[in-house]
Amino acid sequence: MRINTNVASLTAQESAVNVGKNLSSSLEKLSTGLRINKASDDASGMAIADKLRTQASAVGQGIANANAANTFIQIADKAMAEQSNIMDIVKTKLMQASTSTTSSDGRVAILNDIKALLSQFDAISSSTNYNGTTLLQGADFDFQIGEDSTNDKITVATTYGATTTSIASSGGAAGKVGLKSLASTGVTTTNITASMALAAMSTIDAALTNLNTVRSEFGSGQNQIESALRNMMTTRTNLKAAESIIRDVDYAAESANFNKQNIIAQAGTYAISQANAIQQNVLRLLQ
After folding, report:
1. Could you tell me where the DSSP H helices lie in 138-193?
2. Per residue of the chain (287 residues), what is the pLDDT tens digit?
3. Element containing residue 262 per DSSP (H, E)
4. CB-CB neighbours of 1 under 10 Å
5. Helices marked H in 2-100 — which ranges?
6. CA distance 12 to 169
7. Which residues of 51-68 are buried (b: 16+ CB within 10 A; e: fewer)?
8. What is the rounded distance in angstroms from the CA atom of residue 124 to the CA atom of residue 112?
């Protein structure tokens, strides 16, 4: 029997150290809720999980971009809805001016109302903006809703700007919606006839048609964005689920592992004490 080196005790201590590491690792997983806390836990799993997390983050930003784009378009649409109401009122007033029951003075008053309405139309166009970007001045808008610069970009291209000018005093209804000028009617600030009012009604119809074209272009873009938004929300959920399977800890399994390691650690402590006690038997040989 040898007492200079207590091999049994050293073996028990080595096992105790390893069990202690396992116990510490198990506690870390239970406290963080993650199966992978460092690369050594699962190098390949960490690489995959990190890539999935990055992809999910990009999709999340795409969702935020799409929601912002929806707000952007809704602002434009509501503004154009009010512009459409203005055009409806203008046409109604022109109809009123086109009948013989309206006096000359009445037609002048109607003309002044129309000028004020068209001025408000133009004010809406110039003031409607999103974060400083004007929306109704006839521009194209690009909405990036994903990582791909081509396939994940939705463009809303507006044919016309939703703008109009007041009926001028120089002899014509100088209104326009975007690039389409309203036809001259010979209306002046002091003279308007029933035939002039009738002629101006057709120009208002053209303006409404062009305004509705702009609204439909925004509407089509919004439909694309909402479709992409629904797809991205599903994609993000699936990416998060895939990452969770790799990275997150299974509490049931890890709790069982922790209890096992704890029992082994207690047994190891007992084994060390017994290994030290065995060496005392040598003393009997020396008596």
Report:
1. none
2. 566 667 777 777 778 788 888 888 888 888 888 888 888 888 898 999 999 999 999 999 999 999 999 999 999 999 999 989 988 998 898 899 888 898 888 888 888 888 788 878 888 988 999 999 999 887 899 999 888 878 889 999 887 777 764 333 333 333 333 223 333 344 444 567 787 777 778 778 877 887 888 889 999 999 999 999 999 999 999 999 999 999 888 888 888 888 888 888 788 777 777 777 776 776 666 66
3. helix 251-279
4. 7
5. 7-32, 43-97
6. 105
7. ebbebbebbeebbebbee
8. 19
CA distances 77 to 58, 94, 177, Å, are 28, 25, 15
Tokens found for residue 102: 């309206």
How far apart, in whole angstroms, are the C-alpha atoms of residue 220 and residue 224? Answer: 6
The answer to whether 63 and 225 have CB atoms below 8 angstroms apart is no
Q: What is the pTM of this model?
A: 0.72
Site of tokens 């935020």? 64
Determine the residue type at 16: A
Amino acid identity, position 167? I
What is the DSSP track for 230-244?
A: HHHHHHHHHHHHHHH
- Angle CA 179–90–168, to nearest 5: 60
* Amino acid in position 99: T
3-state helix, strand, coil in the chain (%, to 5): 70, 5, 25
**CA torsion through residues 256, 257, 261, 264, sign:** positive
Q: What torsion do the CA atoms of 240, 246, 252, 254 make, to the nearest 10 degrees?
A: -140
How far apart are the C-alpha atoms of 133 and 94, rounded to whole Å?
34
Tell which residue, 226, 26, 198, has the closest CA to residue 107.
198
